[in-house]
Design a protein that fits this description.
It comes from Azospirillum baldaniorum. One of its GO terms (molecular function) is metal ion binding. It holds the Pfam family Fer2. Residues 2-106 form the 2Fe-2S ferredoxin-type domain. The chain is an alpha+beta fold. It has a single domain (2-101), classed as Roll (Ubiquitin-like (UB roll)). It is 17% helix and 21% strand. A five-stranded mixed sheet has the order 2-1-5-3-4. It is globular, with a radius of gyration of 12 Å.
Amino acid sequence: MAKVTFIEHDGLEQVVDIPTGWTLMQGAVQSGVAGIEGECGGSCACATCHCYVDEALVDSLPPPSETEEEMLDCTASERRSNSRLSCQIRVSDALDGMVVRLPEAQS
């Protein structure tokens, strides 16, 4: 299990315990994090779970797949170098303490 801090665009923080093996999106949706929609349910088909991963952890994550890269080109908010789809990031103990910032809009 990992504690992940989601910071919404307005600065509201929510710390969520996410079980190992779940995705960041699953943990956010199950915990009612308002800034993650996840309309496609995690199939990497909508980009409504866009997030900005803590810069310190970006390089430790597996790189985005070609499909994720394509979906990131369709985000409602600015794509940045640390943009990821939270449905594509599996939680492990190594992510304990991770900070994820949420964009202004998802759709």
